[in-house]
Please model this.
Amino acid sequence: MAFTFERTDDLLSIAVDGQLVVGNRQEFKQLVLDQVEQGARRVLIDFTDTGYIDSSGLGALVSLGKRIREHGGELRLAGLNEDLRTLFELTRLDTLFRLHDSSDDAREGF
Amino acid sequence: MAFTFERTDDLLSIAVDGQLVVGNRQEFKQLVLDQVEQGARRVLIDFTDTGYIDSSGLGALVSLGKRIREHGGELRLAGLNEDLRTLFELTRLDTLFRLHDSSDDAREGF
Amino acid sequence: MTPAKVSRGAGDSGTSVLEWQIASKVDEIDAIVAAVCAACAVAGFPDKVCRLNVPVSLTEALANAIEQGNGNDPTRVVRVLARIDLVGLCVEVTDEGAGFDTQAVRARCHEQSWVDREDGRGVFLMHALMDNVETWCDVGHTVRLTLRWP
Amino acid sequence: MTPAKVSRGAGDSGTSVLEWQIASKVDEIDAIVAAVCAACAVAGFPDKVCRLNVPVSLTEALANAIEQGNGNDPTRVVRVLARIDLVGLCVEVTDEGAGFDTQAVRARCHEQSWVDREDGRGVFLMHALMDNVETWCDVGHTVRLTLRWP
Ligand SMILES: Nc1ncnc2c1ncn2[C@@H]1O[C@H](COP(=O)(O)OP(=O)(O)O)[C@@H](O)[C@H]1O
Ligand SMILES: Nc1ncnc2c1ncn2[C@@H]1O[C@H](COP(=O)(O)OP(=O)(O)O)[C@@H](O)[C@H]1O
Model:
């Protein structure tokens, strides 16, 4: 499990390698929030290399989305495979987030 | 994986619950060495609830045995199941340590 | 951590049983989940089941047992028993707590505000991803997840 | 961590393949080992093999790949490919290093002082606990552990 991130101006891109689950969601949340404190406003999370997400991971995304909006920013999610899309649909989180096929898609008009 | 220990006078008894492997042998070694610094001289390690030991774990035992002897103390090992005995025989460590069937056995004449 | 106990009946009709006892630390979750998923893959469950249904629902059950049932107290134990047989997969996760009102928890996910909440999706996901979720209190509190062969 | 890839042939003659990529951190070892052991148990390997031979030799291979091959550099990757088929179990562990002189390492364990050393038992144990241990360098360095059905 690892997070790799890239910061360009107010754009933060993070890739989640492995799972986003109860064991690492705190670390993940903190990483993003620190960047938001330091001016990141457009946040793009790439799930291309993500295995699965549990309810804690989904919760972390919900809470990050809220915090980023409070700072006048926007959160976009990209690269979810079919399994992950199923999770977002089951929990109706596909109504809360726009799911982009790829990071490139998500960057358009961002 | 967890270590539970009990200290009575200069006798330290430790039980290894789970594995003794590369991921936790440092923590284990430090725990025992701290007790030796604080006067433990008879050290009894109980493997009744131990799954397996890798070469790092075996190495930690060798090095602990040496350090304890340098302090004029003795290390005894107890409760090794057949699998663990196989490991000690393969590596000839059964010639370096006396392997006791149980902690009670090991405590006799200790 | 390897299974504390492993047994398998003879021949093709064999039942496989894996058993663990872990301290109540969330770091212990991944190894158990990986093991049960690998077991399901080798037993022949479809890829999607091994990559989504099993790991997510088992992670939920273990996280709840560790955090809610045992209050993250590392001296408290969670027991896991996974069984694969002719019927399918059955996993029981037992904590040392007193359980909870499952009906009340499930009712919550129909509330308007549910989608915006940070927590409260675990029990829902277990039900959504497994064929059957049962809970009871006996010696501690147990959640049993069942998934039949497709 | 669930297998990055899982596949299984149809019917009873099916071959199971589990694949992972991990960062070079010793914390990652346990989950992989637990998964391969569970897979072996479900496939029908004897208990002793699943509790001793497989976990110990695989832990050695992974620890060496992470510490020696990749120098504990978490940005370097270790790849694991486990395969169970009609022949038995075959696990390949690949690091990003340049390998080592296996003959020299094996010769050491005949030295008088070997028993007293803290390190240097890993390669020996892999050979003692597996039917076959092969190493080669191609894209990185690979150790292949093989265990035939008993
Ligand atoms: N094993 C358990 N022991 C005690 N209470 C539990 C257990 N599992 C779940 N609960 C209760 O059910 C509630 C909902 O659980 P869940 O749907 O997993 O969401 P979350 O854990 O995010 O709150 C928990 O907040 C807790 O009150
Ligand atoms: N994957 C690897 N890459 C490079 N060198 C290795 C690798 N595996 C083993 N070695 C070399 O072989 C030596 C012996 O390994 P081993 O028997 O496992 O004992 P230890 O790791 O305790 O030294 C190591 O010290 C190292 O020099």
